[in-house]
């Protein structure tokens, strides 16, 4: 008993210290889209947006969550995206899931959790309030409930778990389209595997649970929510405007820093890329990922005839592999190269390998590889901070420029990058007399980068503080500070009407 208490105490100390370290390293770095979503929630609770429309067509549960936080805390809406509200629930449910699937292995639970939460170089997904991060919390909760219900008969003691499972699956629809898509694929593949392979040979109750969840999930997704038609489909079906070769080229530039050019897309030469050191660390990560995944496949095949009822972890591994493959292909068709999907198969591979291999020295090797991954992740975050690879939540300079432009009765603000647009939108929400800002069209952004003449009337906001520019559809470009001379020498942008060293506002010469 004393030994168990010591383990729990040490685990708690590691948990607290690592979260503290992670939050210090992230330094408020956020996803470029995060600020605007807080502004939407603020508009919803103040009645400036049709709440019925947004509840049905967008992630209503996510906006309701933010709205509740605003009402309860009265925080500045620009601070909410950088408050680490999600890190504790994200970590607790993740550790609980890994702990159960790994047979209550404390070491693997802690190591995999630390690798999981330190994988992104920004904190939005796993530490701060972000729809896809909260969606993953619900998704992991669903996996945990599936693990608990697997091989169980439905009894009065488990009926409440069935109710919670259905509630979680339905909630995901209104929280995150990414998580909704993954859950849809998960239910389909998991049910299919259970039927074809007859993995659960008890009394079929688990299949009934899956079918019930799938039917209710589909009813909500397709029938009660317009979100599927307005957001989900446009984000996950083939876009005829996508140049698939350029999707791969953007990935190569970002990860390997290899400069490429394209006559059909002049902005490709301005694509944002990581330094070489990040590339080397990425190679180490993905070599380890692939090695352990293939080891898991080999062990599953080798032990395929040793049990009459296939282990839940094996079914989960197979299901998540199918989900990741389909998800990768569908996102590629809309212009994204989601290489990180491989991690969603890797973590369960580690659990399978560690549980199937009996040799202690092999387990020690797995432990060392996990420690290497953890060190790589921490180094990547540090490098990202040193090289300014991520945008932070320091918004004062953006907000002050937005307040100036609204007080000056200028024309509508046109903003090239998503981050700056989000903060301008938030200032707009606090005064209904303001004119809503607009994201500058892609072809106009191209003219800013290439120094071409802009032949329309715009008041354009240029953020020289941003470390990169997300100009929609996963197009991350080098920061404006790197092309400041090009901007200043553009004949269309000679009329600078505002400058606070970080933000400059230009009125095009066509005014």
Shape: globular
Give the helix tally.
20
How many distinct beta strands?
7
The protein's oligomeric status is single chain
The description of the largest β-sheet is: 5 strands, mixed
**Could you spell the SSE succession in H and E letters?**
HHHHHHHHHHHHHHHHHEHEHEEEHEE
Reading side by side through the largest sheet, how are the strands ordered?
A: 2-1-3-7-6
Radius of gyration: 24 Å
**Level of helix content?**
55-70%
What does this 3D model show about the protein?
It is a single chain. By secondary structure, the protein is mainly α. Helix content is 61%, strand content 5%. It has a five-stranded mixed β-sheet with strand order 2-1-3-7-6, covered by helices on one side. A two-stranded antiparallel ribbon has the order 4-5. Strand 1, helix 18 and strand 2 form a beta-alpha-beta unit. Helix 5 (87-101) crosses helix 6 (106-118), helix 6 (106-118) runs parallel beside helix 16 (360-386) and helix 13 (276-302) runs antiparallel to helix 16. The N and C termini lie far apart (78 Å). The mean pLDDT is 83.
């Amino acid at each position: 008993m004393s030994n168990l208490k010591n383990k729990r105490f040490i685990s708690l100390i590691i948990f607290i210290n690592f979260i503290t370290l992670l939050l210090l390293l992230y330094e408020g770095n956020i996803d470029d889209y995060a600020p605007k979503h807080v502004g939407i929630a603020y508009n919803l609770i103040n009645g400036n947006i049709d709440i019925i429309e947004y509840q049905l067509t967008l992630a209503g549960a996510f906006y309701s969550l933010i709205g509740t936080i605003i009402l309860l805390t009265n925080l500045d809406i620009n601070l909410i995206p950088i408050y680490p509200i999600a890190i504790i629930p994200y970590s607790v449910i993740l550790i609980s899931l890994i702990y159960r699937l790994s047979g209550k292995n404390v070491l693997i639970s802690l190591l995999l959790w630390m690798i999981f939460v330190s994988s992104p170089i920004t904190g939005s997904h796993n530490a701060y309030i972000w729809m896809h991060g909260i969606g993953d919390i619900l998704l992991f909760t669903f996996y945990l409930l599936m693990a608990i219900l697997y091989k169980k008969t439905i009894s009065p003691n488990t009926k409440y778990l069935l109710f919670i499972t259905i509630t979680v699956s339905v909630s995901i629809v209104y929280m995150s389209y990414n998580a909704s898509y993954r859950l849809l694929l998960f239910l389909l593949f998991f049910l299919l595997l259970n039927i074809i392979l007859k993995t659960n040979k008890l009394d079929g109750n688990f299949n009934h649970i899956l079918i019930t969840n799938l039917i209710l999930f589909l009813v909500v997704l397709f029938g009660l929510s317009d979100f599927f038609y307005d957001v989900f489909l446009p984000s996950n079906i083939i876009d005829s405007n996508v140049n698939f070769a350029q999707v791969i080229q953007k990935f190569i530039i970002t990860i390997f820093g290899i400069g490429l050019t394209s006559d059909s897309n002049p902005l490709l030469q301005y694509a944002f890329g990581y330094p070489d050191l990040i590339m080397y660390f990425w190679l180490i990560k993905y070599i380890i990922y692939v090695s352990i995944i293939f080891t898991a496949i080999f062990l599953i095949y080798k032990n395929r005839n040793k049990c009459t009822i296939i282990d839940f972890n094996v079914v989960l591994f197979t299901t998540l592999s199918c989900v990741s493959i389909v998800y990768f292909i569908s996102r590629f068709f809309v212009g994204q190269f989601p290489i990180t999907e491989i991690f969603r198969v890797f973590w369960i591979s580690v659990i399978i390998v560690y549980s199937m291999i009996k040799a202690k020295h092999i387990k020690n090797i797995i432990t060392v590889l996990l420690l290497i991954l953890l060190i790589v992740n921490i180094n990547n975050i540090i490098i990202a901070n040193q090289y300014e690879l991520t945008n932070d939540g320091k918004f004062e300079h953006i907000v002050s420029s937005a307040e100036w432009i609204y007080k000056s009765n200028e024309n509508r603000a046109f903003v090239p990058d998503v981050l700056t647009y989000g903060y301008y939108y938030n200032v707009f929400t606090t005064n209904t007399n303001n004119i809503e800002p607009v994201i500058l069209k892609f072809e106009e952004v191209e003219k800013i980068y290439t120094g071409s003449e802009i032949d329309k009337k715009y008041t354009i906001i240029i953020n020289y503080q941003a470390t990169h520019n997300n100009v929609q559809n996963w197009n991350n470009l080098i920061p404006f500070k790197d092309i400041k001379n090009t901007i200043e020498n553009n004949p269309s942008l000679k009329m600078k009407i505002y400058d606070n060293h970080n933000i400059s506002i230009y009125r095009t010469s066509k005014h």
